[in-house]
Amino acid sequence: MSTKKLRVIVLTASTRPGALGPAVSRWLTDAVAARAAELDVELVPLALGDLNLPFLDEEEHPSSGLYRHEHTRRWSTIVDAADGFIALTPEYNYGMPATLKNALDYLSAEWAWKPIGFVSYGNTSAGTRAVQHAKQVVTTLRMVPLGATVAIRIGDAVEEGHLRPDPARDAAAIAVLDELVRVANALRPMRERARPGSGPGPIPGSYIRTLTPDDAPEVTVLQRGCWVEEAIVNGSLDIPALHESVDEVREWLAAWHTTGLWLDGRLLGMVRTRRVEDAWDIGRLAVVPDQRGRGLGRWLLRAAEAAAEPGCGRILLFTGAKSLQNIALYESEGFRISTAAAPEGAVSLVKDARLLAEVGD
Asked: What's the mean pLDDT in 252-259?
């Protein structure tokens, strides 16, 4: 399971003046707030009425991701950043409100591989037919509707515009959140693989993507697991990767371009790069111990080299002076030990960047 905080949008669908939706939203967020804190979930209440989305007015198909209007781009950003949704919907004429259908129709890829739970309300059917209608639509968008739902019969639950206290209903709401969190975590690898900029990795099912400061917890764990062996081999615990806090890792992730290799939501390896004058600096090449010997480190190294910016004449990296396996890997890839200054207990290795161009030719 990822260490990232999940963002769940509590979406009020009805825009009718005086509608019950805001009261349902207040009840739900209050009912699940404590459980959300336990699960490290960020609840984001949002009313469709506040977005002022007109009926779909984009010329291009939503699957293109080409949006002309600012209201569409704003809606896209909100949905893209979410990990899951709880839709609060009334039932209008055996279906969901047109406002909800319209909001769904605006976008495409932003919805994919995200769970959605429903809290419905109405009279005869307590809004359940609206949920059945909505499920047909969201599955087409590659969303995953939950089995757990809450259905509120207005005549039994509402008094003077507020929902009467009901421990059973509160428990049902918590069950929706619990299921949504489990499904959202299970679907995270599929969401990430579908994101722009992700690419296939070297082993079946793996993928690469650029790491961001939000990935600092996973990177911290990876470093602690990978550099213990380096500390033992080199006879020193004075290795920054072993001691950096999550905040320190978050800081350098913002400054370096770092590629992460993932499989089933697990960070298997990484490498970071940046330009320093005319040199391409490669660092923190790491692969989890149980995946070594599969060529992942060599693959990440080559990917880092291939990303070298034009005008870089040298590729530089450092490793422990006694890390003979690392040195052998780098030398087999064309690096040579350099006389350039290196941190205490480390050696510098360099490679002529022109060799990459010759290989490409």
From this structure: 97
Tally Cβ neighbours within 10 Å of residue 79. 20
**Residue in 322, 323, 336 with CA at minimum distance from that of residue 297:** 323
Three-state SS sequence of the chain: CCCCCEEEEEEECCCCCCCCHHHHHHHHHHHHHHHHHHCCEEEEEEEHHHHCCCCCCCCCCHHHCCCCCHHHHHHHHHHHHCCEEEEEEECECCECCHHHHHHHHCCCHHHCCCEEEEEEEECCCCCHHHHHHHHHHHHHCCCEEEEEEEEEEHHHHEECCEECCCHHHHHHHHHHHHHHHHHHHHHHHHHHHHCCCCEECCCCCEEEEECCHHHHHHHHHHHHHHHHHHHHHHCCCCCHHHHCCHHHHHHHHHHCEEEEEEECCEEEEEEEEEEECCEEEEEEEEECHHHCCCCHHHHHHHHHHHCCCCCCCEEEEEEECCCHHHHHHHHHCCCEEECCCCCCCEEEEEEECHHHHHHHC
pLDDT at 69: 96
- In the chain, the percentage of residues whose pLDDT exceeds 90 is 83
What's the Rg (C-alpha) of the chain? 26
- Has residue 359 got a pLDDT over 60? no
Domains of the chain by start residue, with CATH: 6-191 (3.40.50.360), 200-360 (3.40.630.30)
Q: What is the pLDDT of residue 3?
A: 60
In this predicted structure, what is the pLDDT of residue 35? 98
**Over 70: is that where the pLDDT of 355 sits?**
no
Residue 41 corresponds to which amino acid?
Answer: V
- The backbone torsions φ and ψ at residue 347, rounded to the nearest 5 degrees and listed phi first, read -125, 155
User: Which pLDDT score is estimated for 37?
Assistant: 97
Answer yes or no: is pLDDT of 238 > 90: no
